[in-house]
Amino acid sequence: MRTEPLLAVRDLDVVFDTARGRVPAVRGVSFDLAPGEVLGLVGESGSGKSTVLSAVMRLLPGVAVAGARRLEFQGTDLMALNAAGLRGVRGTGIGLIPQRPMTSLSQVTPLRKQLRWFLGDMPQSEVEDLLGQVGLRAVAERLDGYPFEFSGGQLQRLLIMLSALARRPSLLLADEPTTTLDATVQAQVLRLILDLRERLGLGVVFVSHDLGVIAQVCDRVGVMYAGRLVETAPIGELFDHPRHPYTRALLRALPSRYRRGERIAVIGGTAAGANRLPGCPFAPRCPRAEARCREQEPEARQTGGAVVRCHFPEDAAGARNTTEAAA
């Protein structure tokens, strides 16, 4: 029996009105998230990952225009909600872990006061219990301090407590929650997120530019390029049998795949301006691109367990699939 998705996104578009004209930031992004599933979004900086999360939360800046054929959370049309309706969903239904813990809290307000803004009149014993669940019980006596007096790891755990524990949302959006942390603290935060997923049944959309982190926490992964979701696949299939040329290039660039002294493969060219090009946005950097790739944008197609936007997706053995492209 099929379970309805926790989050359903169909043909999500986000355009920014700038002094240089309209800039498409997200184009035709579609995916489902099941309850308890962790979906990773990965890609270069500027690929649209964080903008997708902002669009789901309806927290885009005023210069942005968003539209979608479907954007539903637990069957509720997020695009149709007014301001009051959105306040009823944010925090309680959908939690957000922001990207930079050091700048996500007021630096001139004691932590205790900021916690009260979010937690209201929750008894101190319950606050301490929540802190204990994220490994911060010792911090309970220091809440009159200011954020700059705490480490990045402590602040990130605090934000996870507020986002995932205090209101028990069903969906957690994690926007590069480990980017500013050292390796040891990063591993602790990742374990914490997975533990909360197991205990609370959270569905998680986890944004990162680090494929190594994605491999540790995600069930499925979507690869973004120039605002497009170019490949979506179960985590094992994506690492073992990447089908889109951009995905393959990202995996070839992983430092962990090389021995000391070996030259790491890089992706030539740049993604700048790719979101304005006709055809496949990756075509200028793709060594296998043909005239069709530069003229006609590829449709999303099912290839094995993956959904790929490519005229010539590679099969599981790494061979170029030309049959579907010719059809």
Describe this protein's structure:
With 327 residues, this protein is an alpha/beta fold. The chain has a domain at 7-218: P-loop containing nucleotide triphosphate hydrolases (Rossmann fold). The protein is 30% helix and 23% strand. The protein is built from eleven helices and 13 strands. It has helices at residues 49-57, 83-89, 111-119, 124-133, 152-165, 183-200, 211-217, 235-240, 245-252, 291-295, 323-326, and strands spanning 7-18, 21-33, 38-42, 64-67, 70-73, 76-77, 94-97, 171-175, 203-208, 220-225, 228-234, 300-303, 306-309. An eight-stranded mixed beta sheet has the order 7-8-9-3-10-11-13-12, with helices on both faces. Strands 1, 2, 4, 5 and 6 form a five-stranded antiparallel beta sheet that branches. Helix 6 (183-200) links the parallel strand 8 and strand 9 (203-208). Helix 5 (152-165) runs parallel beside helix 6. It is globular and about 65 Å long. Residues 322-327 have low confidence and may be disordered.
Describe what is shown at a glance.
This protein has 327 residues and is an alpha/beta fold. It has a domain at 7-218: Rossmann fold (3-Layer(aba) Sandwich). 30% of the residues lie in helices and 23% in strands.
Which helices and strands occur, and which strands form pairs?
Layout: E1 7-18, E2 21-33, E3 38-42, H1 49-57, E4 64-67, E5 70-73, E6 76-77, H2 83-89, E7 94-97, H3 111-119, H4 124-133, H5 152-165, E8 171-175, H6 183-200, E9 203-208, H7 211-217, E10 220-225, E11 228-234, H8 235-240, H9 245-252, H10 291-295, E12 300-303, E13 306-309, H11 323-326
Parallel strand pairs: 3-9, 3-10, 7-8, 8-9
Antiparallel strand pairs: 1-2, 1-4, 1-5, 5-6, 10-11, 11-13, 12-13
Helix pairs in contact: 5-6
